[in-house]
Design goal:
Layout: H1 3-12, H2 17-20, H3 30-38, E1 48-52, H4 57-70, E2 75-78, E3 90-92, E4 95-96, H5 99-116, H6 120-134, E5 139-143, E6 158-163, H7 171-174, H8 178-185, E7 195-197, H9 205-214, E8 219-221, H10 222-231, H11 258-272, H12 280-288, H13 290-294, E9 301-304, E10 308-311, H14 317-327, E11 335-339, H15 347-351, E12 359-362, H16 373-381, E13 387-389, H17 393-403, E14 409-413, H18 416-420
Parallel strand pairs: 1-5, 1-6, 2-5, 6-7, 7-8, 10-14, 11-12, 11-14, 12-13
Antiparallel strand pairs: 2-3, 3-4, 9-10
Helix pairs in contact: 3-6, 4-11, 4-12, 10-11
Length: about 425
């Protein structure tokens, strides 16, 4: 098969949650275990830092990968979803997996796939761990997909578990309360492997404590470890209690919420710095060169001025609350909001967070899960969010660009898949 034919097989012939939703969800690890066994269990051939959470896990993963890369380690990075190119999901030292490897992997094992009947995510994970093992990486930063306990990534050889935070997202699969979702995310906590929790939440405290004690896993909160930075001579880089960035550290990301992800990443680095011989200078250069090293994009990404254009993939209540708070600090004459969402989110709760003074450009991302633009417009209209309906993301974005004046602001968001069609 050609690379294009291989992608067609992966995207259209396999169950894919990003496109189809519930039809692609697997409620056990049977297929993942079968795939890994077929490959000789490559997931056990390298150490992994395993990251779960509702928001911030991708940012945290990219920060960590960049820091390890700056130390000279051959660093694998597995994230999802991709924005433009499927190969973004699987990187080593910032370089995407080759097209040839993707094609060969599917060609070699396609008959086995037909017997196992895996999902898109299960095959992608298997592809990633096989690639990392073949390339003999030193370490992999492994981001979960949707959950934790039943996520394909939960078979890796973890040296550290990280749970960034818990919010109400994917409630149809993970639970209807913060505590229930925390149980699913806490499923990545392994026996005798330390775990870091990025944000302290009343609803999750007992859940994480119970899982950590059951697994004899050291439980740390990022805010607590921050105090150790003070005692270790790095206080000039890190605010202790509120996660605010301080002078002397250069994080090339514009979103205010990234300060929480940086705190979590720094806490993880402090915890394993002796074992991995991590040095302050390389930590700081890894942070400052994060985008350059990993190709990270889509989070409060500024892609234009006059008018200012901001893209952000935040798509749930917790994420959009932070994003909308930052949007309030922007100065502009008029806000043009290109908005699309997927149909399995808590749409009404998200819409209540959005500014009523904006002009909206309602659209549907080119995936089956995308909410119909007219339906989204009708729901939004009931909350006084007004605008026009467009047949595609590109048409909506072009209309916003055409209508916006130099001192206006265009914001594109509501879904990762909307941003993916613009970035």
């Amino acid at each position: 098969m050609t690379y294009e034919q291989t992608l067609d097989y992966l995207f259209t012939q396999l169950p894919m949650f990003q496109r189809q939703g519930a039809a692609a969800y697997k409620s056990n690890l049977d297929n993942t275990i079968a795939l890994c066994k077929m490959l000789g269990n490559p997931e056990k051939k390298f150490p992994s830092i395993h990251i779960a959470g509702t928001n911030g896990k991708g940012s945290t993963a990219n920060i960590l990968a960049s820091v390890f890369q700056e130390h000279g380690y051959k660093t694998g990075l597995y994230t999802s979803p991709h924005l433009v190119d499927f190969r973004e999901r699987i990187r080593i030292n910032g370089e995407m997996v080759s097209e040839d490897f993707v094609v060969d992997f599917v060609d070699i094992y396609k008959d086995n796939f037909n017997k196992i009947e895996p999902s898109f995510f299960e095959i992608t994970f298997a592809m990633a761990v096989e690639y990392f093992a073949q390339q003999e990486v030193d370490i992999v930063i492994m981001e979960t997909g949707m959950g934790g306990r039943l996520d394909s990534t939960n078979v890796v050889n973890s040296i550290l578990s990280i749970i960034t935070n818990i919010g109400l997202d994917h409630t149809a699969f993970l639970g209807n309360t913060i505590a229930e979702i925390a149980v699913e995310k806490a499923g990545i906590i392994k026996e005798n492997i330390p775990v870091i929790i990025g944000e302290r939440q009343v609803e999750t405290r007992e859940v994480f404590k119970e899982f950590a004690e059951k697994n004899n896993a050291e439980l740390h909160y990022a805010g607590d470890i921050a105090e150790l930075f003070y005692n270790d001579g790095m206080q000039k880089y890190f605010a202790l209690f509120d996660g605010v960035l301080m002078e002397g550290i250069d994080l090339p990301l514009n979103a205010d919420y990234q300060s929480y992800n940086l705190r979590t990443a720094l806490s993880a680095l402090w915890l394993i710095k002796k074992e991995w011989q991590l040095k302050e200078a390389n930590i700081l250069s890894g942070i400052s060169k994060m985008v350059e090293n990993t190709g990270f994009s889509g989070r409060w990404q500024i892609v234009g001025e006059q008018p200012r254009i901001i893209l952000d993939t935040g798509h749930n209540v917790a994420g959009l609350t932070l994003t909308m708070n930052q949007l309030k600090s922007e100065k502009f004459e008029k806000l043009h909001f290109v908005l699309g969402m997927v149909n399995d989110k808590d749409i009404d709760s998200v819409l209540k967070l959005l500014p009523k003074f904006a002009e909206y450009y309602f659209c549907k991302a080119d995936i089956p899960r995308g909410m119909d633009a007219k339906e989204l417009s009708d729901k939004a209209g009931k909350l006084s969010l007004l605008g026009n309906v467009y047949s595609s993301v590109k048409e909506a974005y072009a209309a916003a660009q055409n209508n916006a004046k130099a001192k206006d602001l265009i914001f594109v968001g509501g879904s990762t898949f909307v941003v993916a069609e613009v970035v």
